[in-house]
Amino acid sequence: MKARVVAAVILLLAALPSRGQIRTGGDIDSGTFIMGLDSYFCGNAGGLNFNLDGKDFTVTLGNNLITVVSLGDESEQIVYDSGLAVPFSVTANLPEVTGDFVVGVHDFTGDSQPELVIGVRNSSASGVETYILKHGDEGWRSIGEIAVFGISGVECRIFRHAITVKNPAKGSLYSWTFHGDRFDFKASDGTTDPSALLPPAEEAPAAVE
């Protein structure tokens, strides 16, 4: 009898979703579309404090700018300008996104220092862009830029070193896992190129004679 109970408990635990993979009551209340962040705020304005390499930082979103301030030396740096259609070094032809933000922190690299995560979801909730920024001697730099479009109600789920997006219509999972110095892409449906998840580039206008 005891063995049956133990086996049942093991099966129940195995069936439970992993930490960082479930939508909590707080996630539902906040309306976030990125689950698994250590701390975050979402919407079109907000702020949070975090500690990085023994220093205190605060990040705020307002006036279409995301700004990080080092509280120790009061230095300020704009890390994202939402008025720009293509921030950082994104090479894909992404449209300008109008929608809600999620700004938070999570340690993807495993060095016990959090990275800054900025997510932007378009107003139709079918496209999301996520940027992972790491702090160094020269300020913040992008170590990952992830974009997915064409999935209704798209959400991102973070667990340890990976960020995952599910496509319920196809039953597919798309994941980006940090290895070494970059995010590697894998998909359950055999997709090998993440650019396939982006909208097609607009055709260039014909030349005028």
In short:
The chain has 209 residues and is mostly beta strands.
For the biggest β-sheet, the strand order reads: 1-11-12-13-14
Kindly provide the radius of gyration, computed on alpha-carbon positions and rounded to a whole number of angstroms: 19 Å
Structural class: mainly beta
Please work out how many helical segments DSSP would assign: 2
Helix content: under 10%
Description:
It is a single chain. This protein is mainly β. The chain has a domain of about 120 residues. It has two helices and 14 strands; from the N terminus they run ααββββββββββββββ. The strands form three sheets. The chain has a five-stranded mixed sheet, with no helix packed on it. The chain has a five-stranded antiparallel sheet with strand order 2-7-8-9-10, with no helix packed on it. A hairpin with a 2-residue loop joins β9 and β10. The chain starts with a helix and ends in a 22-residue tail after the last strand. The relative contact order is 0.13. The N terminus and C terminus are likely disordered.
Topology:
Blueprint (H helix, E strand, L loop, with lengths): L1 H14 L9 H6 L3 E2 L3 E5 L2 E7 L2 E8 L2 E6 L4 E7 L17 E8 L8 E8 L4 E10 L2 E11 L6 E4 L2 E6 L4 E8 L2 E6 L22
List keywords for this structure.
disordered C terminus; disordered N terminus; mainly beta; 5-stranded antiparallel sheet; 209 residues; globular; 5-stranded mixed sheet
